[in-house]
Design brief:
Length: 228
């Protein structure tokens, strides 16, 4: 009898803990956005760039910040260069869609790109797919952003069957050998990247995304707001 009572108490405590954790996530999920990770192919380049910037900073600062005629001097140029160097460019790639067309990421320069890595076997990928489908219909009207759903290592038949059953309308690209997912440093599915109009990474969501969160990030990108 005592053991049964203890077990019930432990179960109630666990349920309370899970409810508290979900409440915290639901309240603060918009603040859980992370800085974009460095794609694998750019990590070494970024290290080298950081060293060059550090070595040259003292000499450039000594030259002054503005010329007599009001034009930006070396110090101002350094600030502009530093801002540019802080950007992490999304690695370009070309993949085939389900119709056999080759799609290149850089072809969408000038538009915001939402790059979603997913698979049919992934439970949370399937759960978030209706939100991506709804957002895709909105973006087809606005025309300022696109969704590219990169399927990782599944057959075209598996993907098409899933889309037909769920009546989803998305542009799906096939990462048949997982090379692009590896390039982007994907640790788990789903993972969604947000890419600026100039091809630089804005942020990413590791895990399932919800429509409200997708809207929040898109609105920030459209307004040119930095991540808080």
């Amino acid at each position: 009898m005592k053991n049964t009572r203890k077990l019930i108490i432990w179960i109630l405590a666990l349920v309370a803990l899970l409810i508290a954790a979900y409440t915290f996530y639901d309240k603060y999920k918009a603040q859980l956005l992370l800085e974009p990770p460095l794609p694998n192919i750019q990590r070494e380049e970024a290290k080298g760039l950081q060293q060059e910037t550090t070595e040259g900073s003292s000499d450039e600062a000594a030259t002054g910040s503005e010329d007599i005629d009001g034009r930006a001097g070396p110090a101002d140029q350094q600030d502009e260069g530093q801002a540019a160097s802080d950007k992490v460019m999304a690695p370009d790639f070309t993949l085939s869609d389900l119709d056999g067309n080759e799609i290149t990421l850089s072809d969408y320069r000038g538009k915001i790109v939402i790059l979603n890595f997913w698979a049919v076997w992934c439970r949370y990928c399937v759960e978030e797919m209706p939100d991506f489908h709804a957002l895709n219909e909105e973006l087809e009207e606005s025309g300022d952003a696109v969704i590219l759903a990169v399927n990782v290592q599944e057959s075209s038949q598996t993907i098409q069957t899933f889309l037909d059953q769920k009546d989803f309308n998305l542009r799906v690209l096939m990462d048949e050998d997982g090379a692009i997912a590896s390039t982007y440093g994907i640790q788990g599915l789903p993972t969604t990247f947000f890419i600026n109009t100039d091809g630089s990474l804005y942020t990413y969501i590791p895990g399932m995304a919800e429509l409200d969160t997708l809207h929040t990030i898109l609105d920030m990108m459209r307004r040119g707001e930095p991540l808080r």
